[in-house]
Design a protein that fits this description.
By secondary structure, the chain is α+β, with helices and mostly antiparallel strands. Bound molecules: guanosine-5'-triphosphate and magnesium ion. Guanosine-5'-triphosphate (GTP) binds next to strand 4.
């Protein structure tokens, strides 16, 4: 089934929002397939954000993201990518609705707490990049209460 890569950025870890962010995905019904805390290297982040490497904020983004540990997770389930982005809220907290993670907890676009894959293709690319050894695959009986 569809998978997405969600990452709590250094500001989210520092502010103690890991549990909150994880819980929103868990309670929605998505299945946790991988969870990892690490301080990423600049080269890993440059690969992760390669589509943005011509943007003026790119150097600052890499510096911020490599400054402290992040918590990465893989969630699987129906429409995980699109719904995951909805749970995070719009990139710029000025536009993110209350009830979303960014809408509820942050103010500045450069410190927007979390990352979520923007398409099924980028999700699969990011999952291989962050979890080269693979992730877990398992069945949940609980899914019969979530899906018809
Ligand atoms: P991610 O889930 O983090 O990938 O965010 P996104 O997909 O909603 O946005 P995008 O991939 O375009 O940008 C990646 C990250 O770069 C954003 O989450 C922001 O932290 C940062 N960013 C994007 N646009 C700006 C900007 O205009 N200024 C600054 N300072 N940072 C930005
Ligand atoms: Mg993005």
């Amino acid at each position: 089934s569809e998978r997405t890569y969600i990452m709590v950025k250094p500001d989210g870890v520092e502010r103690g929002l890991v549990g909150n962010i994880l819980t929103r995905f868990e309670q929605k019904g998505y299945k946790l397939c991988a969870l990892q805390m690490m301080q990423p290297s600049k080269s890993l982040l440059e690969e992760h954000y390669k589509d943005l490497n011509t943007r003026p904020f790119f150097p600052r983004l890499i510096k911020y993201m490599s400054s402290a540990p992040v918590v990465g997770m893989v969630w699987s389930g129906k429409n995980a990518v699109k719904t995951g982005r909805k749970i995070l809220g719009a990139t710029n907290p000025l536009d993110s609705e209350p009830g979303t993670i960014r809408g509820d907890y942050c103010i500045d676009v450069s410190q927007n707490l979390c990352h979520g894959s923007d398409s099924v293709e980028s999700a699969e690319r990011e999952i291989s990049l962050w979890f080269p050894a693979g992730v877990c695959d398992y069945q949940r009986r609980y899914d019969s209460f979530i899906y018809e």
